[in-house]
Structure formats: structure tokens, C-alpha cells
Model the fold of this input.
Amino acid sequence: MQKYFVIGDPIAQSKSPVMQNANFRDKGIEAELMATRIFEEELEFWVASFRKNGSGACVTIPHKVSIMQYLDEVDSFASEVGAVNTIVNQNGKLIGFNTDGPGFIQGLEEFDLSNRKILIIGAGGAARGIYYGFLHKGLSDITIANRTVVKGYAICPNVLTLEEAEERLSQFGLIVNTTPIGMFPDMEACPISLQNLTKETIVCDIIYNPFKTKFLKEAESRGAVIQNGLPMFVNQGALQFEYWTGQKADRKVMEEAVLEQLK
Ligand code: ATR
Done:
């Protein structure tokens, strides 16, 4: 039985086990993914044991940056992002990847994104992954809006305050909330006002619990196209599975497993 892990702190809420185990069952692979709560000071020890016993891992908050120092190789995209969310154990050689940004972009495949000005709200790890994901797709008309403006400049040259973004909202054709504002249990919160939103805009939230955040409800009521965080979560997980096994993941199977657990 091959062993896979998702490590983070906290970890109890992680839907990666149910989603990846559905993949293993679907493909008839004798493997199991387990959630393991790891504190920062345990990380190095965990990596040493994983090198011997683990086949692959998902890395989540708060270890996506600190894990990098313990790996043998980090692929060029993950290095650019400066964070790893996936580890592949290739016969004792540990290689890090980042599937968050590419997963988010894959979730938008049904839309034509060319000529859309992009607004990313937030400037944390998720925003960074998504920013580089867009750049790799050739989409570079990107602005970041963040409470702490200097953090925005660490990612991108075009930065607005949240208030400026609210005022200029009608310029943007694609808006992505990457902050945790609106996430369970604080579900009445909204990252910015959508008063100036135009109907043609696609509005995304990377949150999937609740399934429709206040931000998305507000966008929908103004006639915009909305997308929650589930496609990103499923696609980033599918890409992880593909790095681990070389097999194409069935995204429908994964989505159903997550939805079942969210019920
Ligand atoms: P992640 O790795 O998931 O992106 P993070 O690195 O903690 O998480 O980033 C969270 C983002 O949400 C940050 O941009 C943060 O703004 P600051 O850079 O000003 O800290 C933003 N954020 C979190 N809570 C917020 C709040 N209550 N109001 C405004 N922005 C908030």
C-alpha cells in the first residue's frame, strides 16, 4: 500500500483525503492519503520519514514556503511562485511543484479570458500562485488590490487599495477574491463593495465553504457570471494526482467526493 499525505496546521478540515482517495479507488491504485497535522518544528523530521515511507504529499498552510528548504528539487514554476503545494517522491528524491495557480486557471477554461483586465483581491500565497498562473497563460493585464498595498507590490507592479478597486471596478473583466473574507464561519463579510460591477464581468472566489459566498451572491444579483472555489480545488488536486501517478485524474469523480463531504 503506497502512502500519501496532506500536511498542514490546522488539517482536520482538509478535503484532500476524501478527494484523492476517490482517485485512487477510481483507478484501482493501492494507495491511501492521510491528513497529518504537522507543526513547523516537526517539518524536517516529517520530511526525513516521508523520504523513506511516502510516495507523495499535498502541502498546505502554513508549510508551503518553509517546506522548500527540505526538498531536493523545486520545479521552475513553483520556484517562481515561491511556494510548493505538491511533493513527489521519486525513489528518495523529493521534488516540489505548485498546482494552485494552474488549477485555478484550468477551472476557467470554459471562458474566453483574452482582453479581460484582471483584478486579484489579496496578496498572500494564493494570490501569488494565481498571478503566475495567469502570466504563464499569457494573461498579463493584472492588477492587485490589497489592504496592505506594499504586499501587493511584492507580487505585481499594478497595485490599488481596496477603496480604489471599488471605485474602478467597472474596468475589470475578471475579478478574483483570494482573501479568506467571507469564509465559514464569518459568512456575512465581503472583501470589497461591488456597486460598480458590470454585468459582463466574471467574478470568482477561491472559497468553496460556503459554496456561494456573500461576495458571489452580490455579484450574481448584479448579473455577473460567478464561479466558486470548487473548480480550483478539484483541478489543483487533479494536477497533484497526475504528478504523483502519471495518470489523468477523473475530475468528476473528485468533485462528487468533495460535494458528498460538504453536504
Ligand atoms: P493565503 O496564503 O491563503 O493567500 P495569506 O497569505 O494569509 O493567505 O493572505 C491573505 C490575504 O487576505 C492577504 O492579502 C490579506 O491582506 P493583508 O496583506 O493586508 O494582510 C488579506 N486579508 C485577510 N484578512 C483580511 C481582512 N479582514 N481585510 C482585508 N484583507 C484581508
Summary: The first helix runs from residue 16 to 27. Residues 2-98+231-262 form a domain with the Rossmann fold fold (CATH 3.40.50.10860). The radius of gyration is 18 Å. The chain has a mean pLDDT of 97.
